[in-house]
Amino acid sequence: MLGAALGGELRALNISHIIDSSQDVENRILDSVIEMQAFLVTLVRMFNISHADHHPQIKRAKPGLMAPIVLGEEHKGAQLPLKITAIRNA
Length: 90
What we know:
This protein is an alpha+beta fold and 90 residues long. It folds into two domains: 1-45; 47-90, no CATH class. Helix content is 31%, strand content 23%. The protein contains three helices and four strands, in the order αααββββ. It is elongated and about 55 Å long. 1% of the residues are buried.
């Protein structure tokens, strides 16, 4: 189902290397992290991400904390309004 939603190009996730006990734990974890990063990069590249249409003014929540806060809506907590659209035939 996810493959169809993403254009039918989603390959099966191969987790056999994660449960393969012949590799040490560090290599299995590293392989998993690299595979997850590759999947996320592929997924993010299928979308166009831009500022929201109304362009709210954003400030940092607190010094030292990189959490975006919309001015005038501090009571809603951290938020960063974005416009996300699918890129067709990418």
